[in-house]
Amino acid sequence: MEFKMTTIWQQAARTRAAAIACGALKPIATESLEICEHGIPFVIRVLSSLRDKSQALERLHQAADRHHNPFLTPEPELLVSEVPPAHRCILNKFCVIDRHLLLVTRDFEPQSRVLNRQDFAALATCMRQGPALAFFNGGPDAGASQPHKHLQMLPLDKTAAPPFGPLLDDAATRGLGQVPQLPFRHRLVALPQKLLQDTTAAAEWLNGRYRSALDALGIEVSAGSDVRQAYNLLLTARWMLLVPRLGEKSGEVSVNALGFVGWLLVKRRKQAECLQAQGLMDTLIAVSGSGANRNG
């Protein structure tokens, strides 16, 4: 399937409809709890039925099977598009958000490997087709469930905007390296306008700023190009956010990259209540560390 630059999200919608019809795609339904903590908005998604809990467990069992790699030979029904020269775009089989896309390397690369210009070029190629949030879980302690290198993308619109989006947009507009209202460790980089329109220039610029942000956070890259500490990366057309990780879980709740834009996922309502009791922002600090919030 050839990559059509103008139809990535339309193709995702068509592929999704066909994959649901044949049973290849297994969306996980949730109910959303909107919570405001000290003026900061969060959304906690709770699995909404026993069926969805069962599918979530199936997802975990597949992730735990290190001999099964769903990205090396993806199900044809889930393939959205090839993304030359080195990636392919597939639907997330167990998705919580509609048109959740995975951008995977065609050949195996470990998820611990540092991102490179080809990865950022593939992101730019896809993200210039419409508003999107891309993210990367750099290692198991960052929420990665598969060892094959893969980035992820979600379409952005008014009904699917991340809770922290306005805070991040404002800080990027002001040229801040940290968001004053977000006390967990992080590094924010503002993107020039229309950067993603030029794939080659975007790949070079993003790769350079990404490596600089890793350095600023004290995250080392080995001689073999493996990143020595888990981290999360999030990217929109306006900003790039990096967050170092101390661990995957706070209590029983796993936190991946989306936690750092205000989206958390739990299996049971009781877990949501426990998160609220301990503090949602404190949960993020627990898995990433406390930041100094200097405008660096």
UniProtKB/TrEMBL annotation:
Domain Ap4A phosphorylase 1/2 N-terminal, chain residue ranges per copy: 3-160
GO MF annotation: an example: ATP binding
Residues the record marks as active site: 150
Q: Where is the ATP adenylyltransferase C-terminal domain?
A: 180-287
Recorded hits in InterPro entries, A to Z, give: Ap4A_phos1/2, Ap4A_phos1/2-like, Ap4A_phos1/2_N, ATP_adenylylTrfase_C, HIT-like_sf
**Keywords per UniProt:** Nucleotidyltransferase, Transferase
One GO biological process this protein is involved in is: nucleotide metabolic process
Name this protein carries in UniProt: ATP adenylyltransferase
Source organism per UniProt:
Marinobacterium nitratireducens
Source organism lineage?
A: Bacteria, Pseudomonadati, Pseudomonadota, Gammaproteobacteria, Oceanospirillales
